[in-house]
Amino acid sequence: MPGWRDGGTPAPRPAKPRPRDDSSADVAVQFPPPRSTSRAIHRSSSRASHRSTSHAIHRFTSRVRECALIRCWTEGGGGRDRKSVILFLAARPVTAPPVRPVARRRPRRFRLFAPYRQIFAAPGARAFTAANLLARLPMGMLSVSAVLMISGSRGSYALAGAVTATGLAATALVGPWTARMVDRYGQARIAVPATVLAVLGSLSLLLCVRFGAPDWALFASYAATATTPNTGGMSRARWAHLFRDDPAARHTANSFEQAADELCFMLGPVLATLLCTAVAPEAGTAVAAFLLLSGVLLFAAQRRTEPPAAGRPASRADEVRSPLRRRGIPPLLGTFLCTGAIFGSMEVVTLAYADGLGMRSTAGGLLALQAAGSCTAGLLYGLLRPAARSGRRFLVCVGAMAVLMLLPLLAASTGRPGALAAALLCAGMATAPTMVTGMGLVQSRTPAAQLNEGMTLAVTALLGGIAAGSAAGGWVVDHVAGAGVAYVVPAVAAGLAVLLALPTAGTSPSSGTTSATGDQEWD
């Protein structure tokens, strides 16, 4: 039968010729793809919409290639199409889909200092901080430069000490009055002319020493430097104004300010000594005066962060009473007085101890270790959360300072400078937390209209304590015992600080008093 093979099996029908497009490739791809495939592509694109653009394009092109392969396999009947499919599969690039980029996490060591990044992210914070550091550095240079300049030209350390003591006493009297004017009329209006008067006094002292003026002229010139504004207090007032509703940020800012104080009083004497010995005896005073005036001018130019001036009271009845008469302030000032005595006696006794061992040149390094320990502790203390009961934490800090002040006394009895260096480093770590917490208490117990005056009173108490501690330490070294036993003076001063700090643990301002930080405190 036609169409049957020998043996009774039907012969296959010849395949119908299929029209081909000569312009197409070996693998025919139909566009657009079938509806089902279009839905699959649409669903795939929708699922990939949240990914990156490169990932979506990769998925779409992969689907189109799969559709072309399926179409070619189902409709193609010849071996040539199957070979084309194999060649097509072999030619496909084997690439992995793009990986979504993962956000890099900040290392933990950098996240540790997040509180400091937060306070310096405030508008204008970095500008006024840099200017204030420039103005604060001369605070550690002026007295040392004056002593080196006067003793070098007149040959008398007694005269140099008397002149600097006169300037310190004048500052204790004039400083609170200058701070009150700053609170009433603003930082820029008062700080700049007060700094100009102080710089003129320093330059007058320089000229009197240079041209051999009588001794009384030295006392009068250095007394004129008492109008120097409290640059550290003005900087703390700006932080308190910026973060008046954020106690944690204020705590961090106060810790930074204390660390900055320690840094300036650590670098200032070194710079002053270098200038007076390597350049000229008058170089230290001249550079300090220039830095002070430049820093205050730059600081006063930052008007955006300046706290508002309180203004003059309309009548005598509206005049706010002095911070000295506020409840809780006198015990704090007494504690600051004893803390200053620790600083002053520690400096004199350490100098005498190093001189007794024939290592006078290393005395500055020993004192720098104490300042470095305090600076480090201040920065780390700022990372802690502020205490709900600041008075109790202040008492704990003062107690820790009293305990650590026994270490130099024990180390000096061994006669080894290395042991004393380690003891001074550890002893310094307690002073910064004490000062930070104490300054925070002064801010919380002082009205906003008197914030600069309150903090200047605290600084005045510190300066008075430094003068008294220096005199007491020197007297014990010369008349009672050697320098090693004289370390009992800072230990006794720390014990007195604990006794004076006891009332601060449970004391609060008068009822209804609005503090400088904007908090309402009650008895």
UniProtKB/TrEMBL annotation:
Residues 40-57 have a biased composition (Basic residues). Coiled coil: none annotated. Signal peptide: none annotated. InterPro entries: MFS, MFS_trans_sf. Pfam families: MFS_1. Keywords: Membrane, Transmembrane, Transmembrane helix. This is MFS transporter. The lineage of its organism: Bacteria, Bacillati, Actinomycetota, Actinomycetes, Kitasatosporales.
